[in-house]
Amino acid sequence: MPRHSLTLIVVSLALLLSPSAAVATTAPTLGLTHADRTWGAGFGAVKPAAISFNGDPTSFATKSRWSSWGGSRAVGHGMAGFVWPGFGVADGTRYTGATVVAFNLGTCGGHPAYRSEEWYFPQYGQTFARASAVWNICTGKPLSQTPATGPVYCPKGQFNTWVSGTVTCAELPGIADLVGGRVHQGHTAKWISHGWICGTDLAMSRNPQTATCQSGNTDVVTFEI
Predict the structure, then answer these.
(1) What pTM does this model have?
(2) Cα-flanking dihedrals φ and ψ of residue 124, to 5°?
(3) Which whole number is the average pLDDT over 24-40?
(4) Cβ contacts of residue 211 below 8 Å, gap of 6+?
(5) Residue 131 domain-assigned?
(6) Are 175 and 219 in a shared domain?
(7) Domain extent for 47
(8) Do the bridges between strand 111-120 and strand 29-30 make them parallel or antiparallel, or are there none, so unpaired?
């Protein structure tokens, strides 16, 4: 048998025995390894277990296991830092289950890659929102997005009472009564009421004491207790 024919057979058998070898070379990565040199783990990898932007405790996700990869959207489940409403990052971050989503599939550095990602917390009423992704993880540059609308200070609030998201000032008194924040006057507390995740931290708001509650991704109210 001619040598070139034998070589062809060996190569063909190798591809048949390990079909994943050909797939691996075309699997999309999570952005680029050096899209931003200050970032940490996960970028430029396939199905990374950890993603880190090297920032505060809310800037990384760990222990991710991916249920899908390679389609227009990849979904994984891991752990990330959720900041309890009414608290600062330092004393209000709890590490809990998060859904990680890689999306915006395209070409990055000459090969397939997801160019955006974000994570959210379904157990706290959050859902996937493309607008939550603020970085192009292929270029390392911020995405061009409409700036988020800041809080609206409600009348007679003394700048301690405000709403954001889809909540209006007219709805604020009803929400404040619904969540029962006044029972926590004089002490630090975290609680959930009628789908609102609420907190009051005396270290941050002693005089006057305020409570902040969040529903879903963006609906937030802060009111004086």
Answers:
(1) 0.84
(2) -110, 25
(3) 89
(4) 86, 179, 181, 184, 198, 199, 200, 222, 223, 225
(5) yes
(6) yes
(7) 27-142
(8) parallel
